[in-house]
Amino acid sequence: MSEQEWHGNLPDELKNAPIFKPAQDGTIKSVEQVVLDLNNLAQVAGNSLRMPGPDAGDDDIKAFHTKVMEKVPGLMVLPNMEDEANLATHFTKLGKPATPEGKRIKTEEIIQDPDDVTKCKYKIVYEDIPEPPIPPPPEVLFEVPITNVIFLATSNGIPRSWKLKTMPVTNSVE
Asked: 3-state SS of the chain?
């Protein structure tokens, strides 16, 4: 069967379909070329992602995001800007260093590389975490000999409380 014959036997609605349509110079593809083109189209269709429409539900959008993430490794979803833990995880994945032990972040800034929009760096200024203030020793209200004090402890020896055997006399009136 010649190329003209197979194309001529197609129904009229298929003769001008893009896959069967003759080239601009009027040449008709061979059956083998049409089969190869159909095979390529099937592969492209199988590897393509269909964007969710305006009426797509949350499940459809989530499924689309999952497929995109599978097809494009390294792609990241924008973080929830209201969730600090989510933001911290996101910026750590982007290369933000961990805060050193005993330090806290005083200021931080993300600086875009002017030569490469895919790169940025972090400018972080750390400061020491201040030691909690040591409370002053308690004021001595009265002195009691150790023999007048009973110490109470748990069964494993951890001090729990104390009490006086006898109360000292204060502000006595004669």
From this structure: CCHHHHHHCCCHHHHCCCCCCCCCCCCCCCHHHHHHHHHHHHHHHHHCCCCCCCCCCHHHHHHHHHHHHHHCCCCCCCCCCCCHHHHHHHHHHCCCCCCCCCEEEEEEEEEECCCCCCCEEEEEEEEECCCCCCCCCCCCCCCCCHHHEEEEECCCCCEEEEEECCCCCCCCCC
**pLDDT surpasses 80 at 70:** yes
Does this model's pTM top 0.70? Answer: no
For the chain, domain boundaries = 3-47
What average pLDDT does the chain have?
A: 81
